[in-house]
Fold each of these.
Amino acid sequence: MKKLIIALISGIIILSTQSSKAQVSVNINLGLQPAWGPAGYDYVEYYYLPDIEAYYYVPRRQFIYLERGNWVYRSALPARYRSYNLYNGYKVVINSPRPYQYFSSHKAKYARYKGYNGKQAINNGNYKSKGKGQSHGKGKH
């Protein structure tokens, strides 16, 4: 009986420790954001870069772009984009998995931002705005 009570207490302690960890977990990746990313976001999973029709995956710090008809993940952009300035280009925040599956939609929707070098507002794509803690935007992509 003593062993059963000790096992139950141990189980409760383990479960309460795990649930308290889950409650403390917050979706913030500020430290992962690239220096060239737009200010004002507390969480970004992907950026879509309309100028070069590519994506940037923040958690793995990798660019995603088409190469010979396939989407590839690379730590740097290919030579064909060497003149592209990440600091000046428009970025669309997208917080949904595998956004490149919706590339045709993104390409059409954000084509007007190609070559746009103005100040970027915090109101595009899906994002969690600094201090808001809730998702905004239109749909999952």
Note: The chain has one domain: 28-131.
Amino acid sequence: MGNFPAILSQTFGLILNGLLTLLVTFYLLMNKETITGYFHSVNPLGQTDTDRLVSRATEVMSATIRGNFIVLAVQAVLGGVGFAIFGLSSPVLLGALYGLASLIPVVGITLVWLPASAYLILFGDLASGIGIAAWCVVSNLLMDNVISPKIVAGETRLHPLFILFGVLGGVPMFGLFGIVLGPTIIALSFIAIDIYRQLLKGDA
């Protein structure tokens, strides 16, 4: 209960970010030609470099989304197995909710395992309540810091460490969408550095 205001604030912020993103996307699509023409007029890069940036951004964003769907599925399986082991009813449904909750920054899976653990403890099954809490915390730490970066790295062709840094920096900055935008920005930064090197060689 002490953390309820923070959880409520994070949830409200997530919903607000989603609505704002949909609104911005709508207007971007409505004015696509005008916006594209403007950026082409002020873009200092050549067509080849611009195409490289756009192609890589599209590739990384698509790969990150695919990778996160794989992570969601793995999280759902891990959660479902844990709920089944410790005797909760409807482990498949709870596992699915667990997987979806894993996409929510900060609070994430706590929204699922904490009530489940409290339910078991309140009804007298202390060992199972502590067990499900330990299972979820340990498995989530393993997923967030080891497995998830490797899965997404394989899809995006970025080192897992850069994926981890991208997500850790992107989520506080962009919320839920930072999961995709963080690694994308890092990938584009490498291309920008490469373009800068080529410009320096041309000047030399």
Note: Helices lie at 4-30, 32-42, 47-85, 91-101, 110-122, 126-156, 160-174, 178-203.
